[in-house]
Amino acid sequence: MKKELIEYWQKSGLVKDKQLIEAFKKTSRENFIRKENRDEVYGDYPLPIGFGQTISQPTTVMLMIEALELKKTDKVLEVGAGSGWCAAIMSRLAKKIITTEIIPGLVEFAKNNIKKCDIKNVEIVKWDGSQGYEKEAPYDKVMLTAACPSLPKPCIEQLKENGIIIGPVGSLFGQDMIKGIKVKGILETENLGSFMFVPLKGKYGY
Length: 206
Ligand code: SAM
Fold this sequence. Notes:
The protein is of the alpha/beta class. The chain has one domain: Vaccinia Virus protein VP39 (Rossmann fold, 3-Layer(aba) Sandwich). It contains 6 helices and 9 strands; from the N terminus they run H-H-E-E-H-E-H-E-H-E-E-H-E-E-E. The strands form 2 sheets. It has a 7-stranded mixed beta sheet with strand order 5-4-3-6-7-8-9. It has a two-stranded antiparallel sheet with strand order 1-2. S-adenosylmethionine binds next to strand 2, helix 4 and strand 4.
């Protein structure tokens, strides 16, 4: 249940940002899943969205967004739009979200889902986001929502000074969530724990 998830985050201290909780409340996950998964909409686990891909686990999405320390002035690049849900939550906390998706069917899925919400600052692009998205660079924040062999070089290059990048890095069978802050052109990284994501495709993917 939605209420129980929120209570869990608040009691455990896993999610501290009140504005992020408000953004979650406003962004119904119901609009981003397939009808057949309606009964499980607020289960704290990933759900299938077709094409062998998933909408990520709510707690994971919240941890990743919180780690990005979003500001209302931020331009954000997301690699892996999937259902569009994560981009929709971020859109409430940032200025503009550019989200890339490599599977055409999911580009359509995400666009239709976003249309169901009153959101105007999310742009969904059919693109190999492992190469970043030069056209809109530089970015204040970059989020990768698929498992990467390493944080893709173009995504780091397209990040502003003092910008934050986050993504799961490791093998296909398990990854560490790496948060990097660009300081004087060099990425200072921190490991936020173990996770399991679908693989990043494309030039800098697997
Ligand atoms: N953020 C999504 C959401 O809120 O539903 C979940 C993302 S899902 C875990 C990972 C997504 O990354 C998949 O939709 C997959 O097709 C996409 N993907 C994988 N490699 C990609 C690439 N190189 N460029 C863009 N999207 C990619």
